[in-house]
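Researcher: Structure prediction, please.
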Amino acid sequence: MVEAKEQDKVGKEDGKLDAFLGIDIGSVTCKFVLMDMDGNVLTSVFLRNRGSPIDSAKAGMEQLKNQIEQNENLLEYEIRSCGTTGSARYLTKAVVGGDLAKTEIIAHAVATQSMYPDVRTILEIGGQDSKLIILRDGIIVDFAMNSVCAAGTGSFLDHQASRLGIPIEEFGSYAVKSKNPVSIAGRCTVFAESDMIHKQNAGYSKEDIIAGLCDSLVRNYMNNLSKGKELAEPVVFQGGVSYNKGIIQAFERHLECEVIVPKYNVLMGALGMAILVRDFYLEHELETTFRGLGVSDIEFKTKGFYCGDCPNNCSIVECRLVEENKVIARWGSRCGKWSEMI
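Model: Predicted structure follows.
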């Protein structure tokens, strides 16, 4: 996905244009967005998590490096600053030399507002968790996250698609063909799967079962996250599950309004961090700590230990640069003691 555009301003004395990198590494997927000064997406990387945030970050940086080297327009840009988000944001920040780390809630809200300034409700469903963000007058006033029950996430749909022998990419197309969606229990993945098998054995069509599963996921999302919150328009839906037309229709039925899916629906966290780190760079005018595109060639190791210096007995994680045998980051202490000892 390359959309390199011209900029009017040249960055520093190196004569190159300014670019900013946002990275979102979660439990299932990793997203990298390279953005210019004006907020245009220059290129992006989307890949499955490699099991380790370090391996994922290195693989993503390698792909990004290859994309830049193969595109003359992108060679005109220099990465001035880098920001990280996602469940592995602190470890990723240490590995790539990021300048800023923020929560997914903030990153998703910033990206969505850059496209839809009047947005009031953000729905986000990924592979392993789901989020709801409520905004009023451009300010986050409430949010909720669900990372415990898989029945309201993409992994639930992925598993059921596998059971039905249907590629997950075609799941939504089956749902929209349904004329009589069946009701499927959705409060728990185990109950949902048992109920789906029962409906299969009873002779219901795949289209009606899949439409029922989509409706079940949306009911689960609403029951777990909305809980009396006012989900006002405009409503924007993002995350990998927003590709599913059946889920979009189910949300529109429940909310009785249009649900907008943005152009960069799976990249919003990374895009939000690119925007945040650009603003951070312009405000503070600091030299970046970004290690560059050659991060994939650097070896890192992590180690966990318990502090034990007080009753909190905090679990501390440290990241070490192997070649220099140097600790580059520590996190996990409630008092900040270990982070100050780097």
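Model: The CA atoms of residues 45 and 60 lie 7 Å apart.
Researcher: Thanks, that helps.
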